[in-house]
Design a protein that fits this description.
homodimer, alpha+beta, Ribosomal Protein S5, domain 2, sterol metabolism (chains A, B), ATP binding (chains A, B), peroxisome (chains A, B)
């Protein structure tokens, strides 16, 4: 360490992901090992991602972290596990231009600063911890010149948050539960990249909720301890579904993909309900969105849209193509219009171009939308104004990337503190 | 048949029942044979019952039935099954005073009139078909002098509506699923009569709902065909629970009774959710009632109240004794006050004497109720005005009875038509 004034920084961006075969239940709480395999779709980081800057400097007195500008504690076991695992694999680096050399031994004593930012509301229940831990591990590994493949990094991210391991890849990703006691083989693998099935369009309905939700950590612990259906699901149901889902994705077979996605989401919530005390993540609005999609799919004769819900009331809706997505958004805006003082620009975010396909330019167009044809037997088709906070239009996306443009760093290159 | 002008009538009253180990899924659709045993509590007919008058006369041209004053068709298979099974077991009767004699042969040609009345709203989802078919079979059997024991009658009522077989007894009743192909051993048996555990108090919250509900007949068919959890529940989970529940009832062990009742209700709804398309019977209000009970039970250290939900959003709450019931009603009225124009007299029905224990005489007392102590961490404890339509206070009750007082008959003794 030639000079004592330098700061070395790395910035990365990591996507979030949505499971289509769900992870629910750990067989090892500390290592975060799952009771079954799971499969996810990585979401386009342009609309939903975490950006993390990690920095190292001999000037830093301790490891520190800021999330969305606010300092948070790193003392939790999950952060500590990720930091320890990455540090233990750090390699020597040398930057002759800047006159920096860090040996493997040096890394044990050097402290890091971490700044992380989600481009979506953290509290909205959109798997922010998955993207967050994936980005932490990915950026630290780059900074510390860790010589491990992406699979090994996924096993480290897994120890921060189970589903984080799936955010190490783009496209369609499987988290293999593995067999080893130390979790060495409990890693994520990419099934297909994001270009494989790029017609898919994803609309997320962020559902308003006044209920305080059960955290997924304590929820799945309760399920493992009390649900009499969970083990049957993990041992008998999911293994078959994993094989079928891999086939469906490989063949771009939307019918099977939708059938499996919806069934597995519903079964995960069934296991939550079978827990003592029961866990309710979906609310009446979630139920109405499901009913709307089921009715439409039935009226079309073949599935147009798949739905899946994580540990919260938000619906993630996967449309088979862009045309279907426009029809879906039209239905969603019809049934779930915003409160009258809402700006359309903040009610539909992400890839707003779909609004053009719907023929909606402003709020008055939303109010003028006709009822969907399959709603004809409901007189009048009930509108639920304000039940949805906003919609995010997105698609399957790529995995983690390094941001080489220093202006995108979240830490000041002089002070190592948040900008 | 000496004179051709006579009418012979019988009137009976039959209770409804609420399952504490649920029946969900048939192994034979036509005979209504269940995939698992179930256990129920019979509800006091004073508050929830069906009254049925059946009449026979050579003057009647066809079998006819009136439900709550409105004529309904008897052509459905379920009515036809019950009528056929009872008729085939009819015995000779002779009333020398009235000069009436009906031979076994005569019964084949004679027609019946049936008038049935529920002392509770039919559409409220309170198992009206259970009480209805039980009463139909019980009263017809009496009228036709059927020489069968109550178990055999329960097997006939079962062919009208599965859960109807359990309404042939008071107290605590088991529907044994049986093994025989013809359903001859699929009958109800009384586990304990209503005096065995008479401290229990039951409060039913009739929950407001705008959703059209899936009928239990089509719902359970869909579950049998599509749920991957249902068979596991029926084969592995319920048999053990049946044994434990029988023990709990025998020993008046409220802790086990409550634990099993709540877990089995939640598992039944979990199977509904695991169905394709998923079935949602509980709504946000149902969930809030569960959360309220779970929180209170936890704060007391041992269960005070058990909850169970049938194929609808209504909560059936079983309190361990009257004092607990008063505390429960106080909580319910606090969290779920009526709209301001509601009369207290129509908001709490059934055994209103519990209102006195709560110290509530009029609506202003409801508004003045203090928040429950366990709600202290919610500021303010959220009230859901109008989410409950009304409460029914009741208790475990007796089985079917004959009403000998002719003034209680629902058919005119001269015309054989509804009064």
């Amino acid at each position: 360490m030639a000079s004592q004034k330098w700061i070395l920084m790395t910035t990365a961006q990591t996507p979030t992901n949505i499971a289509v075969i769900k992870y629910w239940g750990k067989r090892d709480e500390a290592l975060i090992l799952a009771v079954n395999d799971s499969i996810s779709v990585t979401l386009d980081p342009q609309h939903l991602c975490t950006t993390t800057t990690v920095a190292v400097s001999p000037m830093f007195q301790s490891d520190r972290m800021w999330l969305n500008g606010k300092e948070i504690s790193l003392s939790g076991g999950r952060y500590q596990n990720c930091l320890r695992e990455i540090r233990s694999r750090a390699s020597e680096i040398e930057d002759e231009k800047k006159g920096i050399k860090i040996t493997k031994k040096d890394w044990e004593k050097l402290h890091v600063h971490i700044a992380s930012y989600n481009n979506f509301p953290t509290a909205a229940g959109l798997a922010s911890s998955a993207a967050g831990f994936a980005c932490l591990v990915f950026s630290l590994a780059k900074l510390m010149n860790v010589q491990e493949d992406q699979g090994k990094l996924s096993a480290i991210a897994r120890q921060g948050s189970g589903s984080a391991c799936r955010s190490l890849y783009g496209g369609f990703v499987k988290w293999v539960m593995g067999n080893e006691k130390n979790g060495g083989d409990s890693i994520a693998v990419q099934l297909q990249d994001e270009k494989h099935w790029d017609e898919l369009v994803i609309i997320i309905a962020v559902v308003s909720s006044r209920q305080k939700e059960t955290s997924s950590t304590s929820g799945m612990r309760d399920s493992v301890e009390t649900s009499l259906l969970l083990q049957h699901r993990a041992k008998e149901v999911v293994p078959k579904r994993i094989i079928e889902m891999e086939e469906a994705i490989k063949n771009r077979d939307f019918l099977s993909f939708a059938r499996l996605t919806c069934a597995d989401s519903n079964q995960f919530h069934a296991v939550c309900l079978d827990t003592s005390p029961p866990i309710f993540y979906m609310n009446d609005t979630s139920h109405r969105i499901i009913s709307c999609v089921e009715k439409w799919n039935r009226s079309e004769g073949t599935p147009q849209v798949a739905y899946t819900f994580d540990a919260g009331p938000n619906a993630v809706l996967i449309a088979r193509d862009r045309k279907v997505a426009a029809n879906l958004l039209q239905r969603l805006l019809y049934y779930f219009p915003p409160h009258s003082d809402t700006d359309l620009n903040s009610y539909v975010i992400g890839d707003k171009s779909i609004l053009g396909d719907v023929g909606v330019d402003e709020m008055r167009d939303v109010e003028a939308l006709p009822p969907p044809p399959e709603a004809k037997d409901q007189i009048p088709a009930q509108k639920q104004r304000g039940a949805v906070s906003y919609f995010i239009c997105t698609r399957p996306g790529k995995g983690p990337v390094l941001l080489s443009d220093e202006s995108q760093a979240l830490l000041n290159p002089e002070s190592g503190l948040p900008k």
